Hints:
5-stranded parallel β-sheet; globular; 16-stranded parallel β-sheet
Amino acid sequence: xxxxxxxxxxxxxxxxxxxxxxxxxxxxxxxxxxxxxxxxxxxxxxxxxxxxxxxxxxxxxxxxxxxxxxxxxxxxxxxxxxxxxxxxxxxxxxxxxxxxxxxxxxxxxxxxxxxxxxxxxxxxxxxxxxxxxxxxxxxxxxxxxxxxxxxxxxxxxxxxxxxxxxxxxxxxxxxxxxxxxxxxxxxxxxxxxxxxxxxxxxxxxxxxxxxxxxxxxxxxxxxxxxxxxxxxxxxxxxxxxxxxxxxxxxxxxxxxxxxxxxxxxxxxxxxxxxxxxxxxxxxxxxxxxxxxxxxxxxxxxxxxxxxxxxxxxxxxxxxxxxxxxxxxxxxxxxxxxxxxxxxxxxxxxxxxxxxxxxxxxxxxxxxxxxxxxxxxxxxxxxxxxxxxxxxxxxxxxxxxxxxxxxxxxxxxxxxxxxxxxxxxxxxxxxxxxxxxxxxxxxxxxxxxxxxxxxxxxxxxxxxxxxxxxxxxxxxxxxxxxxxxxxxxxxxxxxxxxxxxxxxxxxxxxxxxxxxxxxxxxxxxxxxxxxxxxxxxxxxxxxxxxxxxxxxxxxxxxxxxxxxxxxxxxxxxxxxxxxxxxxxxxxxxxxxxxxxxxxxxxxxxxxxxxxxxxxxxxxxxxxxxxxxxxxxxxxxxxxxxxxxxxxxxxxxxxxxxxxxxxxxxxxxxxxxxxxxxxxxxxxxxxxxxxxxxxxxxxxxxxxxxxxxxxxxxxxxxxxxxxxxxxxxxxxxxxxxxxxxxxxxxxxxxxxxxxxxxxxxxxxxxxxxxxxxxxxxxxxxxxxxxxxxxxxxxxxxxxxxxxxxxxxxxxxxxxxxxxxxxxxxxxxxxxxxxxxxxxxxxxxxxxxxxxxxxxxxxxxxxxxxxx
Length: 865
């Protein structure tokens, strides 16, 4: 957490140093000295710190607190300056203002430097002692779990072990803490057929303390009973020597080695297979169990990874019943109903189910009922002495220091909230967790959490199976998140009246409202207003039917997400929140022109309660002041359009940073508008079309003339004219566009050649009436790089393919295509085909199709899934 606080402080100081009113008095020989070198040294030390090197918690807290105090001072001064600039009062910033600030700044800066120095000193002296302490607490896995719901994984693992591959093979069993990795492998390892199939078997618990190849080899040699000179410790670190010892011990044998609970990364995994253990052509096997799933692309080609799934509801209840009751006990129907609800609330994690079952053993029905009504069946904290809490907290502790802030931020969302990847990244960026000008990609941080099996994938992106579209937190990790954030004062969740007490909000920088009803209490407003340094106000509670007041007096606020809170009209208090970089809001009125005061705004999501449709008066426009938001990167404004920009002058009304424009109509796609958005990469257009009108889609060509490269184009026609073949041609698209989504356009299939020639097109989604007609013919020369295809609610009857290979196609989805009867035979070479509620004969043919390495997922509301 200290890493995030120091980084945020650095960004705040950079913003202040760039302000012209401040520069009026600041010079190189000024009293104020920016501590860039000190902050950079600290950040570099933290970022280079391996995940297994822990830090002194007390020292880290002191750094965080000192950095946040200085950040509060700096951002208060920035806010003061911005308000004056927005009111054209920059000349009123005086030398006295400057001197007063620099005096306080210098005093607090000395405290920050002192804490940074103490932290780095403690880091060098205590990291190994801390690791040893935590490792000893964690030293062995929790108790053996009952084997439930793993039949398929057992079968796959046994088949892999017994397959007649002659060379050494390595596999990894991956999954989150408590999911049953060790239980699964121990069961297979002890199977009589497996025991008889190997001359040497070793089950080696590695753990987090041993994270280098030579340390792992030494553990294996010790179990093999290999004796070599112990006085020469250099030999213990010599990879070549240890490798030779392993080869001498194992090269003539068929061996099975389990390396359990490995915490190291991809480079060591690859070394185990290619540098550490003998490849003796005797069908030897190595099984690694690990929470960490990260491997490089080279080792991926050679290694099978088996991610363990969470249990379904039936298996969850079966495991809970086995744990809570003695063998053969039959519980009452009332208790079974309550128990199934509790089991479901455990979200399929075996270790959580077992812990809950042990807690319930011998308890009364009323106690079961009380637990079933709790938000979570378990509360996970750092001080909890249960095996599961220890393991989960250890997973958090072992996380790289710079990654912890991203993990904790996942807890701002309510339980079982499906988190959009794009939304999460927008919030991370707006929070200032990283510099967009650096080489870091925001997406990488989410991928790292997923690879550590801490964040769960809910839905993968269409463009790549390796990219996540939606994700979530398991309740156990979320419980840890919320409790850690509370102790760190990172964020505070307001769900009940008791959560809103002043002593609970004091010192917080982020308030997360998970129940908007609490805002109806007047005293809650007063208590919220007493917290001066709030940076983020996140309202993720269920949407309210009636307007609710929301206190908006936080002068340092950077993020306001109030999409779920209803306003009659746009709250004018927002225009005093001069540091806002992220604004998401729903109201019944229009966006005022005063939005131009929010010069730091980077993300604007503006929604109305009712869709705005075209009328005799024409489209509804955003205010002209929108063109003054020079930092704006993403604009979502359902039912509104960008107005024509004012003439070019000294104010230069160009949105040079805007990359995403969504919710607009064709009236925002004029040359006047688009020419002032030079960096546009993603656009979503919604056309309100009457049945007696014809849309020519000529605006498509304007994108072609202005942009060569384009990431995503989406066009939805509402109430399209269903007369066939109204549009006789499709305008061109940017040559290097990557993703196209069309709905309601009514193009004839023969005109799809415009899309088929796009060299970089990877994703094509054709929804309701996007194209019409019974036959679609394509050849293997078309769509050269297409990976994902969706056909949904179309009247197509035959899809024909002329050629031998669908080249790069990875995934095809047919959804609600009730007339479709035939498909290309080449579809069998696609990695994944999904069929959802289509023609029955079509689904029957698809079930009979034999896939060459791929698979089909077929579901229907009529036939069994």
